[in-house]
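User: structure tokens for this one?
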Amino acid sequence: TRNLLVDIKFFEGMTPEQLDWVAKRAHRRIFPAGTNVLTIEQPGEVVYIILQGTVKIHVEQDDGRDVILAILGAGDLLGEMSLIDSVGRSASAVTLENSLMLWMDKETFNTLLDEFFPVARNLVQILSARLRLSDELIQALASLDVNGRVARQLLAFADKYGQENPAGETRIPIRLTQGDIADLVGASRKRVNQTIALFKKQDLLEMTANGRIIICNRDLLANYCR
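Assistant:
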């Protein structure tokens, strides 16, 4: 398990001995697509770290509408806020594809924060990055049209998760459906479909056979955000 920890931001800067300590207390689990990992208002007893896969953080409204707060991928944490403030979960989390995760109990998580300085620093950086992404989304919702909001969201995902190839293209490895993008940017699915079609026609992006988005020209796509 130690080898799995080395590339995770949360454990960056830890010694091999410290990673071995974590490896003895962390557990791996595969969640099939569509699994509810966390449920809103339930007590926080476990924290999850995504190794592979995509997870949607959402809140279902009384009228049945689904409000998506975030879509997370490899390296992200789930459930850490409830362990920190001892308040029930603020949202639900469901896997959008088969996802491999590590989980730790509350005692292990709190010991990490108390006794391993790099972990506390890394957690602050992770939460800061998440807040920055949320701030960018709020700004986009207030100031951009649908094309700009979609472009801004795709570029944000590319900045956080993107994998660049030799041709200078950026593959976004997390699973993004056009319906989920529509919920994220506050637009109808039909309108987002039109935007994606426009971007593909202009050779700004393409879709792979397994539904991943590849950004072909970041600079031109960014023009929609101005």
